[in-house]
Write a structure and sequence with these properties.
The protein has 7 helices and 19 strands. The strands form 7 sheets. The chain has a 5-stranded mixed β-sheet with strand order 1-3-2-5-4. Strands 14-16-17 form a 3-stranded antiparallel β-sheet, with no helix packed on it. A 3-stranded antiparallel β-sheet has the order 15-19-18. α2 runs antiparallel to α4 and α4 packs across α6. The termini are far apart.
Length: 365
């Protein structure tokens, strides 16, 4: 995600008492995939159009100038150790054997993005990440992938039981703390007919329950027709899915040693076209936990432009997209109809043969 999109997301998702932007599908020239529209004087509107060439991507900036479809993004998106096709995809600008190559131990660096997996940038040199149970009292030290610094020790994410002291929420099994102690997270209060598996359309304020107390928060803007939503609480199903993924991830030592420190448990280990189901599931459950309102009631053009990465992963995890589903449904109905017609014709044929035989046996000599 580019810095412009990130800042824009902060603007539309974090401010209260503002009218939400509109995202709608609209035809435009073949090269334009997104542009700002002054359709309403007091509301920002963006018209979107998926790229005609499915192998191209929309270079999203969501600024004053129209965004164009491009063969490849002009900025890096991959960290050392992750899959790549060309050097431009890598922050290190080096793609060797379809993997981004970074700086080795004790080589020069300016940020963590320059260093290889299991390393981080410290005093302009790539240094070893701390391992499990190592001290992290030194403020310049960094714990390894899948580890967090809690109470001055590097420990596994999601390893502490409730009522245990923790200096960071991700050290807890619940991924939530209150007054420095691990506790179950808050749950979004919904109506009797509402489920806990999707955002709630804003009823005015978002109400959450933490233990026996309730509190309210402002609603957040989605990326659709201007609707506002309440996101799931940190004790809802969205977080449970993510916690289960983290547990399975940490059980795979080869994954934790292959991943770069910046993306952490969401690193891209496989190829872009052949990533593991675990990666796609991780991408979906993490975004459900952090940005679920952004995906609520998305129009097809939003799914294929702004939120393409999420919906591509979602379709791989939970099924085919609507177009393919419709095709399979049509084929299923057609095949079923052919089978039914075939059975009826067979019954008619057998019945006719039976009647002819009966007529022969009863006819006079």
């Amino acid at each position: 995600m580019s810095s412009a999109i990130f800042l824009f997301s902060l603007l539309v998702l974090g401010l209260a008492d503002v009218k939400c932007p509109y995202y709608f599908c609209q035809d435009s020239d073949n090269a334009t995939c997104a542009k700002l529209n002054d359709t309403k004087s007091d509301v920002v509107g963006f018209s979107l159009r998926p790229c005609d060439n499915e192998s191209w991507v929309c270079d999203l900036q969501l600024g004053d100038n129209p965004d164009k479809c491009v063969e490849s993004l002009s900025y890096a998106t991959r960290y050392p150790g992750e899959y790549c096709k060309n050097p431009g995809e890598c922050f290190s600008k080096q793609c060797v054997g379809n993997k981004c190559k970074g700086a080795a131990l004790n080589e020069n660096c300016s940020t963590n993005d320059d260093c290889n997996p299991m390393l981080y940038c410290n005093a302009s040199k790539c240094a070893n990440l701390k391992r499990e149970n190592d001290s992290c009292a030194d403020p310049t030290s960094r714990c390894g992938v899948g580890l967090v610094c809690s109470n001055l020790l590097c420990i596994r994410m999601g390893s502490l039981d409730n009522l245990t002291k923790a200096s960071v929420p991700s050290a807890c099994k619940s991924f939530y703390t209150s007054n420095g102690v691990c506790v179950n997270g808050p749950i979004l209060v919904k109506g009797e007919n509402e489920t806990s598996v999707k955002p709630l359309v804003c009823p005015g304020k978002c109400t959450y329950k933490l233990d026996t107390q309730t509190y309210s928060e402002e609603c957040q803007c989605g990326m659709n027709n201007g609707t506002r939503y309440c996101s799931p609480g940190r004790g809802d199903l969205a977080l449970e899915d993510y916690i289960n993924y983290v547990k399975s991830y940490l059980a795979n030592e080869s994954a934790t040693t292959a991943c770069h420190i910046t993306p952490g448990v969401l690193c891209v280990n496989g190829t872009k076209d052949q990533m593991s189901d675990d990666y796609y599931k991780a991408y979906v459950v993490y975004n459900n936990m952090t940005r679920w309102v952004s995906f609520a009631d998305n129009e097809p053009c939003v799914q294929k432009t702004i939120n393409a990465d999420y919906w591509n992963a979602y379709n791989k995890v939970y099924g085919q997209d609507d177009d393919k589903f419709g095709l399979y449904l049509f084929l299923g109905i057609a095949i079923g109809a052919v089978v039914v017609i075939g059975v009826l014709l067979l019954i008619i044929y057998l019945k006719r043969g039976s009647d002819e035989e009966e007529g022969e046996t009863t006819s006079p000599n």
